[in-house]
Amino acid sequence: MTDRSLPLLGAPLRDLFLLQSGATFLNHGSFGAVPAPVRQAQEAWRVRVETQPDVFFRETAWTALRETADRIGRFAGAEGGGLVFVPNVTEAVATVLDAMRFGPGDEIVLFDVAYAAVKRAVDVTCARTGAQIRPMATGLRMTPAAYAEALRAKLSAKTRLVLLDHIVSPTAQLVPIEALIPIAREAGARVFVDGAHAIGQLRLDITRLGADWYASNAHKWLFAPRGCCVLYTAPEVRAQTHPVVVSHYYEDPYPRRFDYVGTRDVTPYLAAAAAADFVDGIGLDAMTGHRAALLAAADQALGRLGATPVIPRAPALAAWALPQSRPAEPEDGPALMKALWREAQVQIAASATHGRLLLRLSLQVYNDTGDIDRCATALGRLGWPGR
Ligand SMILES: Cc1ncc(COP(=O)(O)O)c(C=O)c1O
Fold first, then answer.
1. Where do the domains of the chain lie, and which CATH numbers do they carry?
2. Which end of the chain is more exposed for a tag (fewer CB within 10 A), N or C?
3. Which of 158, 159, 139, 155 is nearest to 147 (CA)?
4. pTM
C-alpha cells in the first residue's frame, strides 16, 4: 500500500536523508543511507533498551526479533522461522563456511568477481581446512548460457559448496541464479547465495529459489540501519548452522540460537521492520520505475563519453566500462572515486575488473536526472585514469 504522507520520488525524497547537501550521491549500494522514519524507529527501540535493559534483553528482544523476522519473511518470501539476523553479509558468509565443516580435498566454487572480502574468507577457510577454491571465469557481457557453462566447468564430485552472487558487486551483473541453483544442487553441492544487494532492489521469493542459504544486507537497498543482514537457512541445513560466536544459546534450536549472541545492539535488526514499511509505503514497483528512468538517462549521458554497459543488468545498480588507452590498473578505480568526490562532490564506485575500468552507479529513489547530469559532466570535465 502506498503511503501518501511520503514525499515524491527524486529530489523531494532526499530531504528524508542526512546526506550532505550540495553533493551528489550515486553510491547507495556500498554503505546504504537511512531515511528519517527508519532512524526514528531505531531511536524508539534504543529508548526502550535504555528505559529497562533487563526487561529488554530478557524478554522484549526475543519476541520482537521473531516478529521482525516474520515481517521480513513476508516481504522477501520466506517463513520467519527460517530467517535470522546477523550484522552483515561478511558474517553470514563466515556462518555458512563454518557450517560446512570442510576437509582436505573438498572444493568450493565461486565467481572470479565475487566480493573481495568473501573471496578472502574462502581463502582463509581453504588454508585452515585443506579445501580448494575453484573460481568460475566470467566476463563483462554474460548470458544465462555462459553462466551455466562457467558453473558446469568448475563442478566436480568434490564440490561441496557453490557461492553465487545474486548481484555482483564490482560489475553490478544480475546473475540468473534461478537457473544456476538447480545445476549446483544436481551436482550434489550445497548453495549459498550472496544477495547483499538484493533485498529492496529485487522482488524476492527466497524460499522458492531453492538455495541452502540466502543472505541479504538490509542496510543497503532496504534502507535499514547499518549492521542488519538477513540470513535464510533451508530446513535441511538448520541443524548445522550456528552463530560464529558461541554464546548461551548456541545449542538451542535454529533460529533461537541466533537471537541472543552476547549483549549486542539489536536495534538495527528491529528497525528492519520500519525499513520494509518504508519500501512498501513507496511501493517497490514505483521505486523500480523511477530507477529504470534514471538508468536510461545514465545510459544516454555515459554513452556520449564512450562508456559501454556491463550485462546482464540489475534494476538499480549498474556498471559501465570506460574507454582507456591502456589496460586498467588496480589503482584506477580508487583514483577515479577520489577525484570525482574531491573535485566535484560526486560519489560513485569504480574498480578495475576484467582488465577494464568500471564505473558503478547506484540509482536510488532520492536521485533524479540532475544527479546523472552532474556525474556525467564531471566525468567529461575531469576525465579518468588512462582516458
Ligand atoms: C556482493 C557483496 N557481498 C558481500 C558484501 C559485504 O557486505 P558487508 O560489508 O555488509 O558485510 C558486499 C558489500 O558491498 C557485497 O557487495
1. 11-33+283-382 (3.90.1150.10), 39-278 (3.40.640.10)
2. N
3. 139
4. 0.98
Residue 196 Cβ contacting ligand 1 at under 6 Å: yes
Q: Give the residues across from 346 on adjacent strands.
A: 24
**Does position 1 have pLDDT exceeding 70, yes or no?**
no
Q: What are phi and psi of 372, to 5 degrees?
A: -65, -45
What residues contact residue 246 under an 8 Å CB cut-off, 6+ apart?
none
CA Rg, the chain, in Å? Answer: 21
d(C-alpha 23, C-alpha 14), whole Å = 11
Q: Is the Cβ–Cβ distance between 236 and 188 less than 8 Å? A: no
Contact, 321 vs 333, CB < 8 A?
Answer: no
Measured from the CB, is residue 165 less than 6 Å from ligand 1? yes
Could you read off the pLDDT of 134-160 as tens digits, one per residue? 999 999 999 999 999 999 999 999 999
pLDDT of residue 6: 78
pLDDT digits over 175-210, tens only?
Answer: 999 999 999 999 999 999 999 999 999 999 999 999
Tell me the CA end-to-end span of the chain in Å, nearest whole number: 47
Residue 230's H or E segment, with its range, is: strand 229-233
Q: How does the average pLDDT of the chain come out, rounded?
A: 97
Structure-block grid coordinates of residue 112: 572470479
The predicted pLDDT at position 185 comes to: 98
Q: Mutation test of ligand 1: which of 28, 169, 174, 220 has the most ligand atoms closer than 8 Å to its C-beta?
A: 169
Q: Are the C-beta atoms of residues 287 and 2 closer than 8 Å to each other?
A: no
Q: If you take atom 12 of ligand 1, which residue's CA is the nearest one?
A: 196
